[in-house]
Amino acid sequence: MNKKTTILLPVIIAMAVAIGVLIGNMLNRNAQPSFNSFGFAQPNKISTILDLINKGYVDSVNTGDIVEQTIPEIIKNLDPHTSYIPARDMEEVQEEMSGNFSGIGVQFSIQEDTVRVIEVISGGPSSKVGVLPGDRIVAVNDSVIAGVDVHNNTVMSLLRGEKNSKVRIGVMRKGYDGELEFEITRGDIPLYSVDVSYMIDDETGFIKVSRFANTTYREFVEGMLKLQNAGAKKVIIDLRSNPGGSLVGVLQMVDEFLKKGEPILYTEGLNQPRKTYNASAKATFADIGVYVMIDEFSASASEIFAGAMQDNDRGLVIGRRSFGKGLVQEQIPLMDGSALRLTVARFYTPSGRCIQSSYEDGNEEYYNHIYERFHNMEQLVADSIHFADSLRYETKGGRVVYGGGGIMPDFFVPVDTAGTSDYYNLIYRKGLVYSFAYAYADSHRDELTKLNSADEIENYLDKNSALNDFVAYAEEKGVKKDAKGLSESRLVLNTQMKAYIARNIMGEEGFYPIIKQIDKTLLRAIEVSQQNLMVANVVATDSVVGIN
Predict the structure, then answer these.
(1) Which of 316, 351, 488, 506 could be joined to 311 by an S-S link, Cβ 3.0–4.6 Å?
(2) CATH number, residue 175
């Protein structure tokens, strides 16, 4: 041992001991007794009770199960969004956030107790071996899944698995006798956040974002660049029914529209000091007009985006008041593979609004407040919405906006109840539009796949009187033709039928251009955009919805 080693060794040992003590204290913090102001030990009650059960209970007990059942009971007394994720559910949660999972790459639906392939992901594992849209999956490995009352979760658990693992599926295909068998090597399957981006007219683009995950920003920018390259001078961003997700993704998205230094949001909590997020110098889409669509099911990251556009007078918001989730969660991994998703802060829009809905009456009532809104006619009449003066804020340009439970749109659009009838309701409850669309697409697939656009599919269906076929199909399924009801609901039924058939052939780029004909919120957004109503043209008013 040389002299240098002799000198350093005691120092290294001392450091190792100190670090070990520090780590030990951190790991055992929750298990150690705490001390009250008088210096007496105050044991952790839960640990004490579990220890007493382990050492003294009359029968053997799985205390692990007790802990799993107790944790949700503890956190339910906090806010509605703090949650516990058991280890068994972590894989699914991570898939949702990462934007992919390992599977065979098909979209399916279960109709008449049969698993039917709706779409095969291009370049995916099933596509490579020759699985086709319209195929019926009747067996997976040794499990028969046809005619046995199979459910979605069962099918997904059979088809998903570890990457590079193999699975055999048995398929029945129209025009072929017998069963086809495919061996498929599972691979990474993307979970898309951006459903579609397409041009509504020569200068207006449309992009639908259904959730916020780790891949959302990349998908969104790709969709926006596609629209920009197609000549879009303005864009309608659809965040309706988007429950939110990744905070990082939405911050990056907002950053593409604002000038350097403009505020996006700030967060603050008892144990988290105020943290402000401002735009950098990206502003890739600074010259594109923005119109954001929201509804009562738009939450969290969707509200951050809409609030930032509104408060910076960067875009107009169209639709109905959003859900009102203004709490920030941090996911903390636990040693057994589970995690605690703990609310650590509130977020505030640039004007200072906290848009979190009240949960003072309990978590159950919090989630029922959407139904209360319906009861109060809020979805139908904007004047039913009242805000206290204490919730009044101003945007960068002096427009009045309100906090206290969601983002209130600049242009209110009520729930559309036109086109409903007893005849329509019977059809809707039986899901006949969806099942007919699949059957029709399947039986006309050769002709329909030769068509190149939603317009061409729509023209084909009109020319071939597909609505008459649907009415006959509905009658076969027990819904007798009702001339009056059909007259009242013709537009809605015909448009939905054509849109779902197009979705079965072309995916979302077939569905959205057709369904927009009966989408009142989208039609209002298009109208506002065509009037070139930008924020600068909107007169500030005491009533947010008064600018309709």
Answers:
(1) 351
(2) 2.30.42.10
Do 459 and 499 fall into the same domain?
Answer: yes
Q: Which residues in 456-480 are b (16+ Cβ under 10 Å) and which e?
A: ebbebbeeeebbebbbebbeeeebe
3-state secondary structure 58-72: CCCCCHHHHHHHHHH
- Tell me the two tokens of residue 292: 């954001």
| 306 shares a domain with 335 | yes
Q: Residue 534: pLDDT band by 50, 70, 90 thresholds? A: low
Q: What is the mean pLDDT of residues 447-461?
A: 96
226 & 275 share domain: yes
- 388 domain residue, yes or no: yes
Cβ atoms within 10 Å, residue 225: 14
- Distance CA(400)–CA(246), nearest Å, equals 29
- Shared-domain flag, residues 358 and 487: no
Cβ atoms of 337 and 258 within 8 Å: the answer is no
Distance CA 536, CA 179 (A): 64
Residue 437 sits in the same domain as residue 325: no
CA distance 66 to 76: 16
> Among residues of the chain, what percentage have pLDDT more than 90?
47
For range 241-254, the mean pLDDT: 91
345 and 216 housed in the same domain: yes
Compute the distance between CA of residue 155 and CA of residue 108 in angstroms, rounded to an integer: 9
Segment 310-318 shows an average pLDDT of 96
Q: What is the CATH number of the domain that holds 270?
A: 3.90.226.10
- Contacts of residue 394, defined as CB under 8 A and 6 or more positions apart, other chains included, come to 351, 400, 401
Note whether 364 and 237 are same-domain residues. Answer: yes
Confidence (pTM) = 0.80
Token pair 């450091």: residue: 15
User: 398 is written with which tokens?
Assistant: 């002096």
Buried b (16+ CB within 10 A) or exposed e, 31-63: eeeeeeeeeeeeeeeeeeebeeeeeeeeeeeee
Q: Which domain holds residue 262?
A: 194-415
- In this structure, are residues 395 and 307 in contact, taking their beta carbons and an 8 Å threshold? no
- Number of structural domains in the chain: 3
Instruction: Provide the pLDDT for residue 542.
Output: 35
Distance CA 323, CA 243 (A): 9
Residues 153 and 296 grouped into a single domain: no
User: In 288-418, where do the E strands start and end?
Assistant: 289-294, 315-319, 327-333, 339-348, 392-394, 400-402, 411-412
Residue 457 domain-assigned (yes or no): yes
What's phi and psi for 241, nearest 5 deg?
60, 20
Average pLDDT over residues 496-517: 94
Q: What is the pLDDT of residues 213-228, one digit of tens each?
A: 889 999 999 999 999 9
* 334-391 tens-digit pLDDT: 888 899 989 999 999 999 999 888 877 777 777 777 667 666 666 666 655 666 777 7
